[in-house]
Amino acid sequence: LLNIIAGLDNPDSGKIKLAGLSTQHRLGQVGYMQQKDLLLPWRTVLSNAILGLEVNGIAKDVARNRALSYFEDFGLTGFEHEYPFTLSGGMRQRVAFLRTILLDSDVLLLDEPFSALDALSRVRLQEWFLQLMDSIPKTVVLVTHDVEEAVFLSDRIYVMSSRPGEIKDIVTVPFSRPRDFDVVGVDSFVRLKTQLLATMRGT
């Protein structure tokens, strides 16, 4: 689904519309962060962050200045000249996410961005992500197999079946923003999580 939205694949039927407009040339119109961080090991944190801007023809000094203005918000200050192998998994994900954000697309596609992290790092990065999205409003399509993550991060959840993928249910998440991790213990959160798990199991 993300590949189709991004323009890497074409749908067998139906249409993809961005900003209400149908387009046959979707490549480059959305930011796409895949499951692995895909950082280049021979490039520093700063050089990895600006890779997309360089590919788009932005001058390196302009790209660096633009990236550096985000480093504090992304918790990367002081690591500009480090290489990926020196970073934790969470920091690598933040660099990859910054690289995606810098493309300044209105639509962001995220493919299980937190799945490779340990439980504590995942929670911290999820909370950071929510705060960031409140300050940098974007339309985000996030794929996850973690039901709790879906409820915590989302405003609307689409439950998909296994192949062939079909939408089984659409649920509006009732929790307002700003939102913190304490919400996962609220009774209505647990009920919604249970409801979604039942839908996924086909009951």
Low-pLDDT windows of residues: none
Main sheet: strands, sense, barrel: 3 strands, parallel
The SSE order reads HEEEHHHHEHEHEEH
How many DSSP-defined strands?
Answer: 7
Instruction: Output mean pLDDT.
Output: 90
Describe the structure.
The protein is α/β, with parallel strands linked by helices and 203 residues long. Helices cover 37% and strands 14% of the residues. The chain is built from eight helices and seven strands. It has helices at residues 2-6, 45-49, 51-55, 60-68, 89-101, 119-135, 147-153, 187-201, and strands at residues 17-18, 21-22, 31-33, 107-111, 139-143, 156-160, 167-172. The strands form three sheets. A three-stranded parallel β-sheet has the order 3-4-5. The protein has a two-stranded antiparallel ribbon with strand order 1-2. It has a two-stranded antiparallel ribbon with strand order 6-7. α7 (147-153) crosses α8 (187-201). The radius of gyration is 18 Å and the shape is globular.
Map the helices and strands:
Layout: H1 2-6, E1 17-18, E2 21-22, E3 31-33, H2 45-49, H3 51-55, H4 60-68, H5 89-101, E4 107-111, H6 119-135, E5 139-143, H7 147-153, E6 156-160, E7 167-172, H8 187-201
Parallel strand pairs: 3-4, 4-5
Antiparallel strand pairs: 1-2, 6-7
Helix pairs in contact: 7-8
